[in-house]
Amino acid sequence: MFQMISGSALIVTMADKTKSTKPANKTPPKSPADPAKERAAKRLSYESNSSHEGAMAAELSALEETFRKFAIHGDTRATGKEMHGKNWSKLCKDCHVIDGKNVTITDVDIVFSKIKGKSSRTITFDQFKEALQELSKKRFKDQSNEEAVQEIHKLIEGKAPIISGVTKTISSPTVSRLTDTTKFTGSHKERFDPSGKGRGKAGREDLVDASGYVPGYKHAGTYDHKVQGSKSYSTDGLKKRGKTEG
Q1: 127-159, pLDDT tens digit by residue?
Q2: Helices assigned H by DSSP within 85-222
Q3: Is there a contact between 111 and 182 (Cβ–Cβ < 8 Å)?
Q4: CA atoms of 234 and 229, how far apart (whole Å)
Q5: Can you tell me the distance from the alpha carbon of 81 to that of 67, in angstroms, rounded to the nearest whole number?
Q6: pLDDT digits (tens, 9 = 90+) for 91-140
Q7: Which of 46, 51, 91 is nearest to 73 (CA)?
Q8: How large is the C-alpha radius of gyration of the chain?
Q9: CB count, 10 Å around CB of 66?
């Protein structure tokens, strides 16, 4: 019995020692936060970040918009994020980056091949800016690097691809000979009338001629005219003969 009591007393003593060894929590309780102040702080932080991002977007929006317009020109599958060499050359031509003196089409192709990746056929917007920086040194030689970049950006910002007019057909002797219906022979000749207009179904099918004339007869339809002419001639002859006898 004594051992049981002693054992329980020992357990209680050890538990008391364990509780006494734990450090006391001296951190003062947090005061309840004001929801209105938290919302205001978050709004100010969001607005500051948005204004910074908006300023960066406004700085590059015109240049990026031009890049996108030329990147998707003539390609319905393009996303506007990458530009191939053909549209890069068109951009430099339409925006007058190529002046024929300081910058030529050859310079544009060389810069494109230099900037793009070895296994790539397109350039991104960042590579596009690098290419413009390379050309700005040649296009505006008398200005500093920063001024040259700004000037070449001004040439491009806000521009769009120039769509040329309808391509004019070029007449050639070969095409004229192939389309001249007066020189057609055989069954092809039968499909067109003397003026070159198609005869439609009559030129494609053998229609039975029920007029009674021999095929190829050129004086069809002149019988009545000849008969009437002969009748009027005979009548006039009889009148003249009657006057003479009278």
Answers
A1: 999 999 999 999 999 999 999 999 999 999 999
A2: 85-94, 105-115, 125-139, 145-156, 173-179, 186-189, 201-204
A3: no
A4: 9
A5: 8
A6: 999 999 999 899 999 999 999 999 998 899 999 999 999 999 999 999 99
A7: 91
A8: 49
A9: 22
